[in-house]
């Protein structure tokens, strides 16, 4: 006998699902990945592949053999964590660095909390910060690996602009001299910035990704714009007060992981607030902490720490930032 | 500027396959099964017995209590049974079964196509005629119209709003009547304005019905007191609270009714029925039903007599389509799944939708990824993920009340949008009913 379905409304569903959302983020990362491969060649491919595969395998093994639950690696979320981790590493990182980072990201930061949707901290960033603290030398070695396409620039040691600035300031130089000695051009930073992690090479490619995510309504603009706006305004104030000690706002947005972090890391659904008021507070918090670490902290770059610190406030933000209710009054009649 | 409501909403695919299909009169039935539960509130009490002869338009059920209504025979013939029968969900409801003989109408019903514009009745007479014609809201809830037109003495209506938004995908019944009987709808509105003693009315129509808008605006030139308002396409625009927000900017309070902000909302179909009842003495015995879906080719808009078995409609479209997996009475967002194909249509039936398994399939529930989409789309500004979480912990009725679960209008936007396919509305619906029960018991004390 033919069977018919009887179930409550609604009877149709939008085409979006967890898998398609993760796939959209991957598509948004494609320009950045292509640019990375162009500049770093095999090294970038190696890191991305090892990251993605390790994350998927670790999640599979834990779900299948340790937790004995349903295996959900086909939702792409683990693979995405691996790719994001790879983009946050120096391009010349050895293969075992990303292997360890991926195991920490999925095994500790994601699965110990209960898997997808349950973790408090962004897994890829936990992996990165774990590596940064455990292997500081490797994680700050900005040697540019052999490229397939651009011969002759291989093996140039290229510290990040932020590291150059921090180093210069600690040696008592002022900003004018540092900039004069290093010729940072905005144009170069926007399209091609040498020195930096795999995913930071091209601000332009990252912005293309942002546009795609916004157009597909995968993310809302609140978090990235709150972070970038806060960094701009705050560094702008410092810069206006003393341009010899502080870098200018455009430089601060285009360098380091501000774009990568605000577009792809801080907007991770699971570890960011669920409604707009919370998103704005969260973004402003990340912006402030990033600037404080850059200008006054020990590390040249602070967005990873800033995001992880603000991740811990998300449950509170979700609890206390309510959406605007339709009805403000209650009829007790 | 096109208007719309301010919070949430979704954009499901239109699928208005039958928009250009003219309304066809459905062939005369062999047997009509007229339910006594045609309206929200208490079912009517049958007034006929087995063996009685009835005419089209004859009263066969009388109201029981304040929120109830008259039921009329939709056919002429002999009553063969008065007994409980399963409705579309399989629940036993009293039905009057009539074996059809000819098509003989009550004499006072004016069946000519002439449009009668002059209104010769007082407010009280109008409400009485509407009550006697058994008119219910045709927008979905089937609330008795005479009750809505007779607000409590301490509440004053300022505006009448006619709902022509038809925001449900697939359904085109209102679109068709606006194109084919626009003037009758305007006269119905004028009649209801007189009953309510208001001087201003609006008709809200979504932008995806350009022909309806053009026709209604043209006919509306003769009715300066009634404004046609073009609305953006967004579901659930036809929800009373959303429609009032879109047109007037007023927000109906929680647990309140439109009359609390001085508005009465009626569907355009109801307006047509009011015209027919007051000007033509015709009780509500038929309605336009969109028969639609992608799994068959003969999608139509039918004028159906109340009490037509769904199985009869399937015969009329050429038999059971091969791929059909789900039958829905109403639209895909808020309609009811039909489990009993021998059940019959009601006054409020607006569509009969056939979906394939592919179209209606729900994927397996995944983990909440806290994307916040349910919050974004909720037109009441609720947090469906939170309501689901609290409800599943069990017994959190006080917390659910604090989170305003009672505001849920069950539009289904949350479940429609959830990427993890969490059955948010299913869980919320059950718990909302429980919370409202608790609140009622408390206010009784």
Structure described in brief:
Chain A is mainly α and 333 residues long.
How is this structure best described in words?
The complex is a heterodimer of chains A (333) and B (445). Chain A is mainly α and 333 residues long. Chain A has two domains: 18-139, no CATH class; 161-320, no CATH class. Chain A has helices at residues 18-40, 42-66, 77-87, 95-110, 123-134, 136-139, 161-170, 175-182, 186-191, 203-215, 222-241, 249-254, 258-265, 276-296, 303-311, 314-320. The N and C termini of chain A lie far apart (52 Å). Chain B has helices spanning 123-132, 145-148, 173-180, 182-196, 210-220, 240-248, 268-280, 310-316, 357-360, 373-377, 384-393, 397-402, 413-417, 424-444; strands at residues 23-25, 31-35, 45-46, 53-54, 59-62, 71-72, 77-86, 92-100, 159-164, 200-206, 226-231, 263-267, 286-292, 300-305, 324-329, 336-337, 351-356. Chain B has 445 residues and is an alpha/beta fold. In chain B, strand 13 and strand 14 form a beta hairpin. Chain B has two domains: 1-28 and 110-361, NADH-ubiquinone oxidoreductase 51kDa subunit (Rossmann fold, 3-Layer(aba) Sandwich); 373-444, no CATH class. Chain B is 29% helix and 20% strand. A six-stranded mixed sheet of chain B has the order 1-14-13-17-15-16. A four-stranded antiparallel sheet of chain B has the order 2-8-7-4, with no helix packed on it. Chain B has 14 helices and 17 strands. The chains are: A mainly alpha (333), B alpha/beta (445). At the A-B interface, helix 1 of A face strand 15, strand 16, helix 9, helix 10 and helix 13 of B.
Largest interface: A-B, 43 and 66 residues
State the domain count of chain B: 2
In round numbers, the mean pLDDT of chain B is 94
Gap between N and C termini of chain A = 52 Å
Mean pLDDT across all residues of chain A, rounded?
A: 87
Q: What's the overall geometry of chain A?
A: globular
Multimeric state of these chains? heterodimer
- Widest beta sheet: strand line-up of chain B: 1-14-13-17-15-16
Helix- and strand-based class of chain B? alpha/beta
- Helical content band of chain B: 25-40%
Number of helices of chain A: 16
